[in-house]
Amino acid sequence: xxxxxxxxxxxxxxxxxxxxxxxxxxxxxxxxxxxxxxxxxxxxxxxxxxxxxxxxxxxxxxxxxxxxxxxxxxxxxxxxxxxxxxxxxxxxxxxxxxxxxxxxxxxxxxxxxxxxxxxxxxxxxxxxxxxxxxxxxxxxxxxxxxxxxxxxxxxxxxxxxxxxxxxxxxxxxxxxxxxxxxxxxxxxxxxxxxxxxxxxxxxxxxxxxxxxxxxxxxxxxxxxxxxxxxxxxxxxxxxxxxxxxxxxxxxxxxxxxxxxxxxxxxxxxxxxxxxxxxxxxxxxxxxxxxxxxxxxxxxxxxxxxxxxxxxxxxxxxxxxxxxxxxxxxxxxxxxxxxxxxxxxxxxxxxxxxxxxxxxxxxxxxxxxxxxxxxxxxxxxxxxxxxxxxxxxxxxxxxxxxxxxxxxxxxxxxxxxxxxxxxxxxxxxxxxxxxxxxxxxxxxxxxxxxxxxxxxxxxxxxxxxxxxxxxxxxxxxxxxxxxxxxxxxxxxxxxxxxxxxxxxxxxxxxxxxxxxxxxxxxxxxxxxxxxxxxxxxxxxxxxxxxxxxxxxxxxxxxxxxxxxxxxxxxxxxxxxxxxxxxxxxxxxxxxxxxxxxxxxxxxxxxxxxxxxxxxxxxxxxxxxxxxxxxxxxxxxxxxxxxxxxxxxxxxxxxxxxxxxxxxxxxxxxxxxxxxxxxxxxxxxxxxxxxxxxxxxxxxxxxxxxxxxxxxxxxxxxxxxxxxxxxxxxxxxxxxxxxxxxxxxxxxxxxxxxxxxxxxxxxxxxxxxxxxxxxxxxxxxxxxxxxxx
Length: 787
Hints:
Layout: E1 4-5, H1 6-13, H2 17-27, E2 37-38, H3 40-52, H4 60-63, E3 85-86, E4 94-95, H5 105-120, H6 125-130, H7 149-155, H8 158-177, H9 184-204, E5 208-211, E6 214-216, H10 217-224, H11 228-237, E7 247-249, H12 250-259, E8 263-266, H13 272-276, E9 288-289, E10 293-298, H14 304-315, E11 330-335, E12 338-343, H15 348-356, E13 364-370, H16 377-389, E14 393-398, H17 407-415, E15 429-432, H18 441-455, E16 458-459, E17 466-475, E18 479-488, E19 491-492, E20 496-499, E21 502-510, E22 516-517, E23 519-520, E24 524-531, E25 540-544, H19 547-560, H20 577-582, E26 588-595, H21 598-609, E27 617-625, H22 630-639, E28 641-646, H23 652-661, E29 665-668, H24 671-683, E30 690-706, E31 710-723, E32 727-732, E33 735-747, E34 750-751, E35 754-756, E36 760-765, E37 776-784
Parallel strand pairs: 5-8, 10-12, 10-13, 13-14, 14-15, 26-27, 26-28, 28-29
Antiparallel strand pairs: 1-2, 3-4, 6-7, 9-16, 11-12, 17-18, 17-25, 18-24, 19-23, 20-21, 20-25, 21-22, 21-24, 30-31, 30-37, 31-35, 31-36, 32-33, 32-37, 33-34, 33-36
């Protein structure tokens, strides 16, 4: 950037330097001196100030000089006659007498005009007196230069003329010979010199390379125009041991390339999915209101199915009574001209499964609670699932027609789970209903509409369809049949859609009443046929334009063994929690608590919630009593939670499910150990020194009382092995009863060092005799973890 100094600005504006300095002092900072370079902001301030304080009354003054009438050019004067010389007999040259000026009158006439101009412009008098410039317009005249040739030839000496002729002769002879002649050796030297110059020029041009997110070492060498050995040596100098076939990340490859003097650019790889699927955000003016999507959750015995049946029966006219049986997993009801879409999911497990696959399909959750039974464990799980999905909850207190109905008890129990009814000053809508008599069903639907209006649900119907597969099956006559919910855009018959690992063309569509339709907009459930295979429930579908590219994407998904349907929750473990916090990947630490008794669960929950700090917030997603089950694994995987077990143990099937889902499970017997370990993980001080290794499990099939020894458990080793030196853990209904050491291990009557899976043995636990048939004994050892 060119430097524009204070005195240069003053000079360009015809001002003194002090004027510019005063402007800077008044509005900005005083300049150091008149040589200070000004920034663009300081120049803007100076220009604005001078513009505001030097206004003109008319723009005509600015353009008066530019647009004035041009003066006619003076008449061209004839060229002067060449002086004639006379050569007398004595040999001297004398100039011929020149005739005096014949017309001095024009000069005399122009004198007053000159004086008048000088009077009008006193500043120009001195310049006019020193030199009078005479402008002659030669544009229209033709000058005959041939008349001067004879005079020029006379003035050129004979010697110079001879030299010129000699050069012309030499040039002509050289042209006839074809230029200067060189020997072959000289020619080779010249060519070699040119080659070296070209190589040097190429070296000066910086090499540009594009590097993707990961690249093989051999490919990097090719792009850098280097040998593989050179790149491997440079990697070794940087402390990286990599062969030619190994992959390195972008940062490493960019560092090596820059060391070789190359200019690095990141290669942006556009995948088929990015080219095929349009994920652009909709503009505000393209969005329009859409119908709400509602899921009904609750205990299976609390009237959920009866409530759904009553709502469906009231939405069907008398001539369509048979339409009730044509249920496709999702349906729409009409409420005073407004539509509500209901999803009939088989409990909260399927609801969580959809969220685990990234399919957030519901807008409102209706929680059904029986007025005569109150809150049940499955109801608590449904509440926690709805909270984790961050959807508003409307509570329907069902079975109000029964004589022992007690809605106040239900509302009291709801307060324990942070659901305070509006009647008690909260914000949770609680509606007493009866699915048997139909009381307050209309009020329940009106509250659904009101909640949806407050959420301002909108979508863009004028784009390619996108939605979620609710359920799918294989029909013998029609092939794969899928019930899908359109969430955005409009699905039309004939569209090409891709859903998970399958692709096809929509051959036919039917609504929830079984009627054929041509298109379906946002929040409309439809049944479609035409897919090549049966998709999975929860897969997202997209309407695309290129069928060939869609089939190629499906093949890629099949090869990779995954169907990308949405954002995958971040998997969290205590071992790398601090690193994820530092990188900003985790802001909330979600925890699922399972304990042996309710008091322990409440104590663990309250203690863990107090650990929250400014960087991370500890959220207890779910807390319950009992063993860790498949539902807990599903919820933890969907929300990115850690499972904390207090005096409980998971069985082998649950352990395997947790490993496949990437869920971290931590088991504790002392509450302070749990709190200290999670606090250490948050602060980055977690350094476990020992790790539990499970050796095997044995089932107690018979109990023997031995005098002087105590209780001996006759066991069958289910998996792994039981060793004499291992520790033992006694489980009863997956609850830890006791932990201790193995006192004796026998195979028949002989002592054994270990017993493998599939064999029977006798196990005695040191100083413990309360062993019952059906208990499970786990053998484990604590191994030191190398740091």
